[in-house]
């Protein structure tokens, strides 16, 4: 799946300043019939506190990302622990949201979940109807990945692990991270830089391809995911 076409230039249709009637394109050129809504794919971005979820959504979205960040309070910092992420001063308390238009008839909605376990109830709300999830991993706090990994495994929701390669952090091979997290061989483990659009895009491509392979296997076997 290619997210790199002209549709992903960072401008959604609402930002062109032109209504549909001024595009010069008939309904036949949009890839869908008049009044037909595009297919929407929902993807979650999960992971531990400070793993880079808000950064990844902001890097790849074509619209201004919706964020629900609040300053870290003293009690919150004590409860969550800042080991390895000492410079962090804000935290997501509800969700992040971004959008990618792959083509006229296909749109991806990204939902970033809070990293703290006390907000884990948001996963249930956001996971409904999702194609799959990205679990962002920070090797300085790798244990933070276990709750979201366990959650998606229980729900049988396809997921990929994206190892965010922070400056100054020790880097590990994908197979070492896979072993440490006890992941099945089929689960993609990808090294990434959540700040870079192309790197974030590659993570999403790996997840979508993994989810489609699982769907094809399930259909061939006549079973549900």
N to C succession of SSEs: EHEHEEEHEHEHEH
Helical content stands at: 25-40%
Q: Roughly how many Å is the radius of gyration?
A: 18 Å
The 3D shape can be described as: globular
Query: pLDDT under 50 segments (min length 5)?
Result: 5-29
Q: Please state the structural category.
A: alpha/beta
From the 3D structure, determine the CATH topology: Rossmann fold
Please tell me about this protein's structure.
With 225 residues, the protein is of the alpha/beta class. The chain has a single domain, classed as P-loop containing nucleotide triphosphate hydrolases (Rossmann fold), CATH 3.40.50. It has helices at 53-60, 74-80, 121-127, 146-155, 174-181, 197-221; strands at residues 39-47, 69-71, 90-92, 96-103, 106-112, 132-137, 159-164, 189-192. The two termini are 21 Å apart. 32% of the residues are buried.
Can you summarize this structure?
The chain has 225 residues and is of the alpha/beta class. Helix content is 29%, strand content 20%.
Topology:
Blueprint: E1 39-47, H1 53-60, E2 69-71, H2 74-80, E3 90-92, E4 96-103, E5 106-112, H3 121-127, E6 132-137, H4 146-155, E7 159-164, H5 174-181, E8 189-192, H6 197-221
Parallel strand pairs: 1-5, 1-6, 6-7, 7-8
Antiparallel strand pairs: 2-3, 4-5
Helix pairs in contact: 1-6
């Amino acid at each position: 799946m290619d997210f790199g076409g002209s549709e992903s230039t960072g401008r959604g249709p609402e930002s062109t300043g032109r209504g549909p009637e001024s595009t010069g394109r008939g309904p036949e050129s949009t890839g869908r019939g008049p009044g037909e809504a595009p297919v929407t794919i929902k993807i979650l971005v999960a992971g531990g506190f400070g793993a880079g979820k808000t950064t990844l959504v902001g890097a790849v979205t074509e619209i201004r990302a919706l964020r629900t960040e609040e300053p870290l309070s003293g009690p919150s910092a004590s409860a969550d622990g800042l080991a390895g992420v000492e410079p962090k001063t804000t935290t997501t308390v509800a969700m992040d949201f971004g959008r990618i238009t792959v083509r006229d008839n296909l749109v991806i909605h990204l939902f970033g979940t809070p990293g703290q376990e006390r907000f884990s109830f948001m996963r249930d709300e956001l996971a409904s109807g999702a194609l799959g999830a990205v679990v962002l991993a920070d090797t300085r706090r790798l244990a933070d990945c276990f709750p979201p990994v366990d959650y998606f495994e229980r729900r049988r929701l396809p997921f990929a692990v994206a190892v965010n390669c922070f400056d100054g952090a020790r880097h590990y091979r994908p197979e070492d991270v896979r072993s440490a997290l006890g992941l099945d061989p089929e689960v993609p483990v990808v090294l990434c830089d959540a700040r870079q659009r192309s790197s974030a895009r590659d993570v999403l491509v790996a997840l979508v391809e993994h989810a489609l392979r699982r769907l094809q296997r399930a259909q061939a076997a006549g079973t549900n995911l």
